Amino acid sequence: MDRFIFFILCFAIIHLNYACYITNCPIGGKRNLQFDNNLRSHQCPRCGLTGQCFGPSICCTSLACRIGHQSDIRQCSMENRHVIPCEIKTPICSAVPNGRCAANGVCCGTESCQMDKNCLMVSNQESDSSREERLSQPEIILFE
Question: Using CA atoms, how far apart are residues 110 and 132, in angstroms rounded to an integer?
């Protein structure tokens, strides 16, 4: 009877551990692979109707950026819970540290935004006069 209980306990322990062998273990083990997949697919939170969070209180659409709006702070501060920051897939800009082009003519980092001519987005279908008029007025909206 004691051998039977010992056999059942050993079987349960082995079954619950899900050991991997050298030939089929991913680098870092099974748990590390699952953790890495979650980090690679990490998306930045959305804010507003069509916006994307650029920092804990910065929400930008293709037209403008809002800084310090209560609803954006609620949505964008959730990003602070993650260990690895999310990836923003827009061009890099140098007006602010770790900046990315956020809106037309606006470069944003996690803490602030500044105007940057490297972030101007131009459509080839517009006439030169309407293009210059539209591009000369990027917006940053501050809320307190």
Answer: 29
| Predicted pLDDT at 123 | 47
Cβ distance 51 to 102 under 8 Å?
no
Please state which CATH number belongs to domain 46-142: 2.60.9.10
Tokens of 112: 């602030």
Contact in structure between 142 and 67 (CB atoms under 8 Å): yes
110 residue type, one letter: T
125 φ, ψ to 5°?
-85, -15
Question: Do residues 113 and 68 make contact, with C-beta atoms less than 8 angstroms apart?
Answer: no
| Entry field: residues in the chain | 144
- Threshold 0.90, pTM exceeds: no
Q: Give residue-wise pLDDT tens across range 61-94.
A: 888 898 988 888 888 888 777 767 788 888 999 8
Tokens of 102: 């956020």
- Other CB atoms within 10 A of residue 79 CB: 17
> Starting from the edge strand earliest in sequence, which strands make up the sheet with 58-60, in order?
46-47, 51-55, 58-60, 64-67, 139-142
Pairing, β 64-67 against β 139-142: parallel
Cβ proximity of 55 and 76 under 8 Å: yes
